[in-house]
Amino acid sequence: MPWHARLQLDYTAEHNARTVARYEHNGPLRILQSLYPEGDAICHNVLVHPPGGLVGGDTLDITTTVGPGAHGLVTTPGATRFYRSTGPLALQRSHLTLAEGARLEWLPLEALCYSACHAENHLTLNLAPGAECIAWDVTALGLPHAGQPFEQGRFTQHLEVPDLWLERGVIDAADDRLLSSPLGLAGHRCMASMFFAAGTPLDRTRRDAALDAARAVMDAHPQVKATAGATSPNDRMVIVRVLAPQVEPAMKLLKAVRVAWREALWGLAGEAPRIWVM
After folding, report:
1. Are 258 and 251 within 8 A, CB to CB?
2. Do 166 and 197 contact (CB within 8 A), yes or no?
3. Per the confidence metrics, is the pTM higher than 0.90?
4. What is the documented function of this protein (predicted)?
5. H or E stretch at 247
6. Which residues of the chain have pLDDT under 50?
7. Residue 210 contacts by C-beta under 8 Å, 6 or more apart in sequence?
8. 79-123 pLDDT, tens per residue?
């Protein structure tokens, strides 16, 4: 039987400037204990899906709201796994909404697409004026370390900030031109996008600071320097994209960019979620 799990996560800033997380769930989705390694203003949470993966017919619906002045950080304890499907779609759908002056760091670990999966990963972000978000999306095709290439299946990725930015693409294991051509993934099996998005246009100084910080990080990561880039497609976003043969070098780069952006754009240290170092 397919599982349809739902999670509603809400961050609010209390009168003492403490960000508090509250949630409701239906099905196998949970939020672990709130942690405050940076003080009361920033609430760290780990999103857990106990089954560990999705098969055909499963749906995960995750809705996150961040209230005025609150700052939430969400990550996961491990990869999201899209397993083999006999036909039905496995769907993960995340809808993020930030109120005025809110901040969110949306930092789930990678999505692993097993051979013969039929899956979609769908992210929508809505930002009120003054809200800002650092987020990433990392996808790995097959399990190269285990000798299990992505030989069958289909994966759809949808990343959207309505009326501002949309990336939607389909990766079909039969599309050798996309997977192997220099005009496509060029044989790489990990692709990642990271973005800083704002509800209010960024002034030129902040946009340049974000681009310079990301490019400096890329220069320090020779494994992916040639296949990574930073752009600003509009005055409210800065985007980093990277291709890598596997997850580890791509994730290492994104974590370093997060540290650089936190410092350059928010004046914050790069405190890593505790689950990353366990």
Report:
1. no
2. no
3. yes
4. Required for maturation of urease via the functional incorporation of the urease nickel metallocenter.
5. helix 247-261
6. none
7. 196, 202, 230, 232, 238, 261, 264, 265
8. 999 999 988 999 999 999 999 999 999 999 999 999 999 999 999
